[in-house]
Amino acid sequence: MILGSTWALYLALVFGLLTVLVLGAFAARRVSAYFLERRLARRVRRIEAILKEHRDAQFKEVDRLLFQLAEAQDNKAVELALGGVMAGVGETERASVEKLYRSLGIAARYHKDVSTAREWSVRASSARALGQLRYYEAIPALVKAMRDPHEDSQSVKLAAAQALGQMRAAEAVPLLLAELAVIDEWASPRIAEVLTGFGDTATDPLIQALSDEAHVNVRVWAAQILGQSNARKAVPELLARLQDRASTVRMSAAEALGKIGDKRAATDLMDLARRDPVSTVRAEAARALGRVGDETVIDSLVVLLDDPDYWTRLRAIEAIELIRPKDTSALDRALTDPSAEVRGRAAIALERIGVLVERVTELASDDRRLVERARKTLEEMGRAGLSESLLSQLENPDFRVRARVTEILAEIGAKAAVPAIAPLVRDASWPVRARAVEAIARLHPEDGVQLVLPALGDSEETVRSAAIAALQAMGRLDDRRGVEQLIAMFDSANAEVRESVVAAVGGRDDPSIVDLLRRALLDPSAEVRLAAVRAVKARASMEWLGELEARLSDPATEVRVEAAEGLGRLGTQAALDPLTHSMSTPDRELREALSKVLADRGVPAIRELLATTTTTEGLLALVWSLGKTRDPAAIEILVELAKRPESTIRAAVAGATAKLLGGAPMPILRPLLVDTDERVRAAAVNATAQLGATELVPLLFPMLEDPDRFVRNRVALALGRIGGAPAAEHLLGDAGRAVEPAFLAAALLAGGSDQGLNRALGILKDSATKRRLEGLLRRESGELQVVLRKALSLDESGAEDLGEQDLGARYTELLATSSSPELRARAARGLKALGLAPVALLTRSVRSDPDPSVRAACVAALAAATPYSDDAIRGFLDALKDPIGAVRTEAARALGAVADPAHSAVLLGALVGADEALSEALIEALSRVSAGSVRDFSDVLMGTQDEAALAGGARVLGMLAHKDGLPLILRWRTHPKARVRAAAADALGHFGSVEAERALFDLVTDAQEEVRLSVVSALARTGDSAGGLDRLGRDPSLAVRLKVASVELRSGLALRLLEVQRSDPDERIRRASYMRLAALGLAEALRDALATEPDDALPRVTAPPIEAPVVAGLVDTFEQSLRPEARCAAIEVLRAIGARPVATMLRALADPAPEVRIAAAHLAAPSNEEEVKRALEALLRDPDPEVRDAVRRGKLTLIG
Amino acid sequence: MTTVLIADDHADLLAILSGRLKAAGFEVLEAKNGSEALTQVRQGRPEIAILDVMMPELNGFQVCRKIKADRELAETKVVLLTAKSTDADRFWGAEVGADLYLTKPIDPAEVVRRIQELALG
Questions:
Q1: Which residues of B touch A (CB under 8 A)?
Q2: What pLDDT is recorded for position A1107?
Q3: What is the DSSP string of B46-106?
Q4: Looking at domain B3-120, which CATH architecture does it have?
Q5: How much is the ipTM here?
Q6: What is the mean pLDDT of chain A?
Q7: pTM to 2 decimal places
């Protein structure tokens, strides 16, 4: 025990002694360093005094000075003292000081240090010093420092670039230009910046460099620098470069000419914008035109608004905005561009040009055309994203503007406008109040009913009426007081008010509503009665039987029809009795309604009614009812009715038969086709054609000799529609002469044979025939009219005012006859849009049209019309062998739509040698055809060797993600071809099973970059539970690391990867990961990450285009987060990247959490916004002293 | 012959205008309130409808709006005739689609002249 205590004592003594020794040594070093520093400072002061003496004498005795400095024998002190002098030296003294540096060997040491010093700070300071000294010999070393791949300090590279810029000597220009020949993403822009700084000194060599045929890169940079330097002298050579063989040079030359803004360039730029095959060049030319041009270039820019490339269209809009033409109709047109971005940009341009204000002013005009134009443009501008600009017009002093803007906002569905529209319900002007109420009803916000209720008591009838209609439109009315108010309004003298009240409250169960409905059913206004009958009908209650029956004799047809339907809905015998009693009514519309009601009751109910109905009108209504049932069970009854003596009933029987679905209508139609009455025969012929009853076609042929011409015409049409080739042949022969030419033309067209089409065209050349057909068109209806219209549309002069079917006929004709491939392609696209597919014509064109665009369009047209015939499918398969890729692509899409697994092998085979678009279409098609038979598809793949087909197959299996496909994919992860392994990796990402993820992890270390890139996307999809992305985040390939930084990830994974990426040497990777953090709303992590960025890198990693999404993400985080820490972090990051969104600043300055207010005070301190300044002033009285202090400090910093 | 509907609850004015228009060669339909006017437009399909704004049942604005909202009737030219002459009234007349807005008191000869102009397109 005692022994143990002694040891412990010794150990404590030794430890104490060691501590004293270490502390002593440390203190001794500090003391020694302190004295050394003091001694150095004394020496520096002494040398500074010597230097001052010589400087005062304007360095007349430099050699003596050199001797004195050498005598000092303290290089460090001399260097420090000289550095102080150099910093403030004037041009006259510079040569003497430089001589000192050179003679003392300091410049040479800097020259050496810039390449060899161990510490980056020494390399950077050496580079800076060489720049100050204009030590030209160091140019290659400085350039090397800029470019050195092992130089990991950006500070050294930047210092080297700045040094080169400081030299500004003509001798440096060729050296720097030569360096531009090397493609280096980091160094080249900096060299260019340096060269820009040379100004006129570099202009001539740069112009010369524009002709450097050996290096595209040099020509590009030369053009850019000349543009940046505004070198007007370079304009002729830049114009010549617009013809350069390299598109990047043409683009840079256009950009430079735009920056210089010389009007001489306008013509050449217009030409370039219109004709250059490369879209980016056209876009740049468009932008440049905006800078150099005036109204004379507008026409060219307007043409560019139809450019297929949206980017070019955007640039054209920007250019038009810069020119500010008087006529802005082209921009108006761009508001309907297919691209949302273009539409949005056009709207902004119009606003900036002042069109928004102009159009708003027009809204107050009395000229209806002006108002309509303004309304249309403002609607489009609102739809394109400027609805906020419109909102401010709700406070316009002119009531007409307020009213019309309110209507426009409702029209475009701007729900966000409701808070601004709501106060207008109490506007001083009643039209504004009316429009506000209507707008609320259309926008239908949750609190819409509450917003509208006050308008029920409005002094103006129109507003009250609008309020009731609004309540009706918005549906649910839970407010009891509101309901009572509405009921009271039923006493209004105005029928529209009464009608709206009934429509708004008629569906409620209240006893007071029952009274109201009874009164409404007897209202003098038909509209009110109609609303009441509709409300009663919806109730479907026997309580209302008497009222509905009474309304069957209402003076207004619509009311009678609604009442009949109401009774039908009740469905009881008591309700149906009044209907059968009314069956003899001469009122055709009521009979029609009754027959529909009865049809809904079914064939047995109609059979019962037939037994008690005696009048012809009643029987007719029942025949119609039978047709409307579409039930083949009606055939038996119709056979009997076909024997009735009244010809009108027999004709109606034929019509009703045509409506039935299925069954065997021959027993009815056969006798009617040989009826004694021509109207009955004609009706039977029509029914035969409508039913497509080909069994009766033999009976139709002799009817072409029917004594009645009307019947013969109908027979011809029927034969055209259902008779097939023999009928067409018959009609083309002598038999056709018995038919009116107009009907013959229509019949031949319906037949669709080439010969028939040609003959029809010939017939319609006769103007009298055309007029006859026009006359028929006005009288005929239904399918027959369709056929006639189709016939008419063959002739161009008769095509006006025709509908879709006629357009279809026009397209068919164009496709068959036009010699212009553009017209034929357009015709095929038109048929596709209409969903019409003349299969024979289209398949013929697919196989034999000489123009590939026509063939592709025909495939697409065939694919748009389902169901697919065998002919169409054969056409698709032929098209898949077409020599042109675009046709094969359409064929692939079509076969995908057919979705027949039997086509999987042929689709797979087409993947060999396919371009990107075709591959995508084939893969999409394969995924459709194989969706139901993955195992079969796997079997097909097993027999495939080609790597493109295998890779495509893997993608398909991935898209289907079916367990039957997984074994094959797992096998392919070790496939010898990288492309197949990459596709397998991509597919594994879709399976999401543990097995799939494990297999993916094996591929993380694949030797091929292509495979690892696929693994990144796949792991991002699976969630990467095993940490594969962590490893890929450190991948030696920059491309892989960039992919890891940019794939979409959930927040947990993004945070985990941030730890890897924040230390990545490449700024692009750090930028991408910050962008992702902002998008995910992870403001605190973003703040912490940005805090570790070097000051010089911060502006770059947060510069546009990262800025906008980052700011948006941060603002969202601030707005949505309940945690003060997160809100605080969002504000701090906004400050770090220099973004100051006013609304967010204001809300942050009023945040309940003091730390957020403090952060906001720092953010807002430099703001010039009056509102922000006022909010900051207010914070000087904040209850929290730290907040007050932060505001004061912010102010002091600014003053400082 | 062009058919014109006149709708006004003042019998005197109705008679005067009706007489003048008939004398000018128009076929004339008459209505004493808004509901009747709407029925007449639906059944008689006049080319022009002269509507008083302040009418029982449906006011002129409401009738005009219903006419212009109905695709089959929208071609009917509507003249609003009224003692209401504030900016708001005129504005609403234009909003509901009226082709002409005349304020009372009226000169029947002037009304006929304006209707003749309207009939000519």
A1: 34-35, 38-39, 56-59, 61-62, 87-88, 91-92, 94-95
A2: 54
A3: -SEEEEESS-SBS-HHHHHHHHHHSTTTTTSEEEEEES--SHHHHHHHHHTT-SEEEESS-
A4: 3-Layer(aba) Sandwich (3.40)
A5: 0.88
A6: 83
A7: 0.49
